[in-house]
Every structure is written in structure tokens, then in C-alpha cells.
């Protein structure tokens, strides 16, 4: 839309000292003549556009001019920009970059001193492509189809009404209504195969945040408590990954911790195995044997 392009041009000129008609035409994918007409429209709207000729010429906006907003303070803008930039490291898009440009212009200059890097959340290219397709389907309210391999390796075909994307437990998940199960379910994006968008529309007026909260509560109810012994030199590692759990001093300065863990999540098991002889499960016996079995299978690969 023209109004979006005009606002985008103003934002670009506020963030850059000078831009040529060619640079603006390439950025907004229009002709140079269209940019020239846009500049006339912007000037007529009261924005002080300056046109300079020569090798260093181009369009600019008077330095004394800035967009103002009476309702948001400068510190508020800093927090918003920090959040948007952080989001862009893990879920980047051209639209998000344009939004960041707008807030930078509204802030009138921004020196960032807090950096949050979520690039690990991008996962691989396949997950990123699936995320984009799912996001479009969520916005269009159209069903999607895919083959899904669960944690046990069982493959099934799913028809889902997509409602939300979320990053959780170091991975991207789709939350939606599973038509075959007639229930709300979460699906890990990395386990999807043959993802397809359809033209089939759906209507769902449910409170998504409330559904996610209920889904999380149900999931947490499946978590189990395990008691572990931890060497005094490694207790800080467990405290880093389980900050809410309390430790109890044990013999010779070592510790006992009760961990609340999801049964089907492998990350905590991998963590305990990575700590070697610095940690061991005391109870329940089922988890002791499960970890011993996993360690034995690992060692068998090396003929040990």
C-alpha cells in the first residue's frame, strides 16, 4: 500500500542521513519515478524533505524534525527496541526489521547496552521454513496437514487447525486443534514431515493464552520427582539448570537435590549423564535403571 511505503520512506530517512532515489527504489521495489512522486506527497504532508544534487546528493529530512509520541517515554522505547531486536535474532523477518526501524526513528537515537541472543531458537532451515508456512496458515485461519513422528518414533498423519507457534524447551512447537484426536495438542516442528498448507478455512474463537496455560498445567502434572546425589564441586551446574529446586547438605560437603522433571524430556537425562561420576540418581529405582541402561548402550558403541 502507498501509505505504508510513504511511512517506510520517512522512517528510512530519519534513520539515515541521506538516501538516493535509486536506493529507495530498490528498497521498496518501485521505480525511481514513483519515489520522486512519493517525495512530493511527503513534502505536501508537511515533512521537511531536503533534496541535494551532486555525487553525495540524495534525499534527507531536516535534522530538527523528528516523529513524536506523547504517550511513550524514551526508556519505554529502549525496552521495546531491545525486545524486538532480541526477537529478531531468533525469529527474524523483513516485517520485524521494518518495525525495528520505525521504533528507532521514534526514539530519536538508541544506544543499546543489553543484548539477548536467541539465535539458537532458529534451529535449522527446515524448521524456519515450516514456521513461516504455519504462521501464514495461522493468520489465514486455514488447516494444515503433516506427518508426525512422536518421541517413540511412531509416524502418524495429522490434520490440524493451527493456533499458535511457541518456543519452549529449546525447540519450536505448534499448538493447535488436532481434528483426528478432537483435542488441542502441541507438536514439535522438528518432528514434522511433508507439511502442507490447505485452503480449508476454520473458525476458532478460543482464548489461546488460556488454552496454552491449561496445556502447560496438564504437562506439568505429568512431571515426576527424582532425588539425586551431587558432588560438591558440581552442585553449581545443577543449580544453573534447576534454579527453583532446593539443595540439602549431605555427607562430606556433598548435596542431595530433588528435581521435578518431565518424564519424556531427554535434556535433563543428557545433563546428568554429561556430569559423569559427579551425580547419581538415588530414587526412584526406575530412573536409576533407565540411566544405567542408556549409559551401557552408549559404552557398547565403543566396545567397552
User: What is the overall shape?
Assistant: elongated
Poorly predicted runs of 5 or more residues: none
**SSE topology string:** HHHEEHHHEEEEEHEHEEHEH
Total DSSP helices: 10
CATH architectural arrangement of the largest domain: Roll
Protein traits:
Arc Repressor Mutant, subunit A; alpha+beta; SH3 type barrels; five-stranded antiparallel sheet; four-stranded antiparallel sheet; 304 residues
What does this structure look like?
It is a single chain. With 304 residues, this protein is α+β, with helices and mostly antiparallel strands. It has four domains: 2-61, Arc Repressor Mutant, subunit A (Orthogonal Bundle), CATH 1.10.10; 74-119, no CATH class; 125-221, SH3 type barrels; 224-300, Alpha-Beta Plaits (2-Layer Sandwich). The protein has helices at residues 2-15, 21-28, 32-44, 74-90, 94-107, 125-140, 208-221, 235-241, 267-274, 285-300; strands spanning 49-52, 58-61, 142-149, 155-168, 171-178, 183-188, 192-201, 224-230, 247-249, 255-261, 279-283. The strands form three sheets. It has a five-stranded antiparallel beta sheet, with helices on both faces. A four-stranded antiparallel beta sheet has the order 9-10-8-11. Strands 1-2 form a two-stranded antiparallel ribbon. A hairpin with a 5-residue loop joins strand 1 and strand 2 (58-61). The protein is elongated, with a radius of gyration of 27 Å. The model has no long low-confidence stretch (mean pLDDT 83).
Amino acid at each position: 500500500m502507498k501509505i505504508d511505503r510513504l511511512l517506510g520512506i520517512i522512517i528510512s530517512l530519519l534513520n539515515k542521513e541521506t538516501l538516493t532515489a535509486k536506493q529507495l527504489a530498490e528498497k521498496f521495489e518501485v521505480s525511481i519515478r514513483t519515489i520522486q512522486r512519493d517525495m512530493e506527497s511527503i513534502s505536501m504532508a508537511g515533512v521537511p524533505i531536503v533534496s541535494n544534487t551532486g555525487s553525495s546528493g540524495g534525499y534527507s529530512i531536516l535534522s530538527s524534525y523528528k516523529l513524536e509520541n506523547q504517550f511513550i517515554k524514551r526508556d519505554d522505547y529502549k525496552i521495546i527496541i531491545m525486545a524486538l531486536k532480541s526477537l529478531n535474532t531468533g525469529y527474524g523477518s523483513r516485517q520485524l526489521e521494518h518495525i525495528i526501524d520505525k521504533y528507532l526513528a521514534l526514539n530519536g537515537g538508541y544506544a543499546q547496552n543489553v543484548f539477548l541472543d536467541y539465535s539458537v531458537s532458529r534451529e535449522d532451515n527446515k524448521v524456519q521454513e515450516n514456521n513461516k508456512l504455519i504462521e501464514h496458515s495461522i493468520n489465514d485461519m486455514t488447516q494444515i496437514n503433516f506427518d508426525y513422528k512422536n518421541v517413540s518414533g511412531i509416524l502418524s498423519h495429522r490434520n490440524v487447525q493451527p493456533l499458535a507457534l511457541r518456543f519452549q524447551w529449546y525447540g519450536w512447537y505448534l499448538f493447535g486443534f488436532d481434528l483426528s484426536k478432537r483435542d488441542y495438542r502441541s507438536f514439535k516442528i522438528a518432528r514434522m514431515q511433508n507439511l502442507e498448507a490447505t485452503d480449508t478455512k476454520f473458525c476458532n474463537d478460543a482464548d489461546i493464552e488460556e488454552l496454552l496455560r491449561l496445556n502447560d498445567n496438564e504437562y506439568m502434572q505429568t512431571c515426576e520427582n527424582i532425588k539425586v546425589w551431587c558432588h560438591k564441586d558440581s552442585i553449581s551446574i545443577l543449580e544453573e539448570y534447576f534454579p527453583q529446586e532446593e539443595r540439602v547438605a549431605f555427607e562430606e560437603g556433598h548435596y542431595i537435590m530433588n528435581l521435578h522433571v518431565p518424564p519424556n524430556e531427554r535434556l535433563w537425562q543428557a545433563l546428568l549423564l554429561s556430569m559423569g561420576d559427579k551425580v547419581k540418581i538415588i530414587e526412584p529405582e526406575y530412573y536409576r535403571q533407565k540411566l544405567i541402561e542408556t549409559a551401557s548402550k552408549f559404552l557398547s558403541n565403543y566396545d567397552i
